[in-house]
Amino acid sequence: MVAAILLVVGVIAGARAALRRRTRRRVAESSAALEMLGRLNHRFEEAVAPLPPISFSFEVRLDSKPKFDAFDLGRRFREEVLQREQAIVEQMDVRRQVLRHYLDYEARVGAEALPRLGRSERADVAKTRFDAVEEQLFTEILLERPTPQARIVGVARYTSPQGRNSYEKSYIWGFDDLRQELGLAREDRERRSTTQFLRDRERSLLTPKIRIDVLQRDGRRCRACGATADDATLHIDHIIPISRGGLTEMSNLQVLCQSCNLGKSNRFVG
Ligand SMILES: [Zn+2]
């Protein structure tokens, strides 16, 4: 009895599935929206096909437990990204290109296929049923938005002498980590080159004219020990070093003899 009921239920379910398949086929054949979407898919599917994740891995073996404990995987990740920056940027550009194609596809779908939804019909499928199935099929065959992926695996290991104990730590970074790290690296580099530029400019401002002015003002003597050019080599010194933001202007310059100047180094001395 139970078996018979199950059989009946099964037959009905099978018949429903067959009916649903037939309806879907009929709608697919007659829908102007689906026809247009199919054409767009055909044109774009290659250009918007998802690419494999950007991936690389690194492994570091430490030779002591304290080194292992102190090892900073995140910092190493940063260095690896910097080293591979060119290649990573190229891979990201390709993925950005794919995404751009997809946006183009989406715009075309919105302009050419979507407006045709609900506009088609056929005699052997009820209109409301037709529209519902059409919408369903439309979302099913819409090409998926390619999401850029990355998978960077970092591993640090330490094995004690004679292999008694093994330690391992690892981390996996994704696309957003990678993008963020690249951005930081770029900012860092720009900041460094700006700083370098400012320093070079300050050095270039130390012209023969300003050297002579400083020598005259300071009486051609070391301001620290009073040595003259007869006793020692005289230098023009930045009181606040350029590396600390000191400028090349009279108020920040002084005459020092070589030994006072070298003794001063980068420290602030009056
Ligand atoms: Zn001196």
Overall description:
With 270 residues, the protein is of the alpha+beta class. It folds into 2 domains: 176 residues, no CATH class; 60 residues, no CATH class. The strands form 2 sheets. It has a 3-stranded mixed beta sheet. Strands 4-5 form a two-stranded antiparallel ribbon. A hairpin with a 6-residue loop joins strand 2 and strand 3. Helix 2 runs antiparallel to helix 5 and helix 2 runs parallel beside helix 6. It binds zinc ion (ZN). The site of zinc ion (ZN) has 8 residues, from strand 5 and helix 9.
Strands, helices and their partners?
Layout: H1 2-30, H2 32-44, E1 54-62, H3 65-70, H4 73-83, H5 85-113, H6 127-141, E2 150-159, E3 166-173, H7 175-204, H8 208-217, E4 234-238, E5 253-257, H9 258-264
Parallel strand pairs: 1-2
Antiparallel strand pairs: 2-3, 4-5
Helix pairs in contact: 1-6, 2-5, 2-6
Zinc ion (ZN) binds next to strand 5 and helix 9.
Provide a compact summary of the structure.
The chain is an alpha+beta fold and 270 residues long.
